[in-house]
Specification:
This protein is mainly alpha-helical. It has helices at 2-20, 36-78, 99-113, 116-171, 174-182, 187-255. It is rod-shaped. The protein starts with a helix and ends in a 6-residue tail after the last helix. The relative contact order is 0.17.
Length: 261
């Protein structure tokens, strides 16, 4: 356990250094939009973090339950048991302070002092950050779908207008065309207004989508730059505390001739 937590601390400390270097990452020139693949990977990351949170909580809880069970077992075995036989012979007295007792008491105390709540809170907070990023990506993708629908509608109505306009010109004479040019309520102007309105709406939606793409990526990166160091700093502190605790427990076990913890 001492070796395992020492290795865990080394890994988390290394990860802390890596994510701290993210602060120098610049994506100001990068305007890539969120793809379905990108979105799926973000959802996958959230699922992994939530499972991590669940397993971490189980680890903390079950470690404490294990030591509590050993302490309860020890207490039962330290109580002299009187025989109910007619001879009323007492069972042989047991040692009241066996070597394992000091180890279990120390183990219990060290587990209570570990900063597990801080580590758990950091994982929970990071999961919340990823959830927010997912919502932002969904908003961006919905706006893109809206742009694509508007574009299809514009292309369809623009083509229909062009076809109608060519037939309209063939049916009208030069004098009729002049009257159409000065009359804003003629069918040509009305249909053309619908197409131009769609074109303007498409341009506005496309511009909004481009701006949102940049905003989502900047907010996502800023959140990761801030929260990843917080996450791995908390985990580094926790694993360092665990490594230190088990090194001390190992020393207690060795001093009592009980082998490595």
């Amino acid at each position: 356990m001492a070796n395992m937590w020492e290795n865990m601390f080394m890994h988390h400390d290394s990860q802390l250094k890596i994510v701290t270097d993210l602060k120098s990452l610049d994506i100001s020139q990068d305007q890539k939009e969120t793809t379905k693949h990108h979105y799926d990977r973000t959802v996958q990351l959230l699922n992994v973090i939530q499972e991590w949170e669940s397993q971490f909580e189980k680890l903390v809880t079950q470690q404490k339950h294990y030591i509590q069970a050993l302490n309860s077992w020890l207490k039962l075995n330290l109580i002299p048991i009187e025989s109910n036989l007619k001879e009323k012979i007492s069972s042989p007295p047991r040692a009241q302070n066996p070597p394992i007792q000091a180890l279990l008491h120390a183990w219990h105390d060290y587990l209570d002092k570990l900063p597990d709540e801080l580590a758990k809170s950091a994982i929970t907070s990071f999961a919340a950050v990823i959830k927010t990023i997912i919502l932002q990506q969904e908003e961006e993708m919905k706006l893109k779908e809206k742009c694509e629908e508007t574009k299809k509608e514009f292309l369809r109505k623009n083509q229909a207008f062009e076809e109608w306009y060519q037939k309209h010109l063939q049916r009208r004479g030069p004098d009729d065309q002049e009257r159409d040019d000065v009359n804003t309520n003629n069918p040509v102007s009305e249909k053309q207004f619908v197409v131009e309105s769609l074109k303007k709406r498409l341009e506005e939606e496309t511009e909004s989508h481009k701006k949102l793409c940049v905003q989502v990526r900047e907010k996502s990166l800023q959140s990761l730059k801030t929260r990843l160091p917080e996450l791995f700093r908390a985990l580094s502190d926790y694993t360092h505390a665990c490594s230190d605790a088990y090194e001390k427990l190992k020393s207690i076990a060795h001093s009592q001739g009980g082998g490595a913890a």
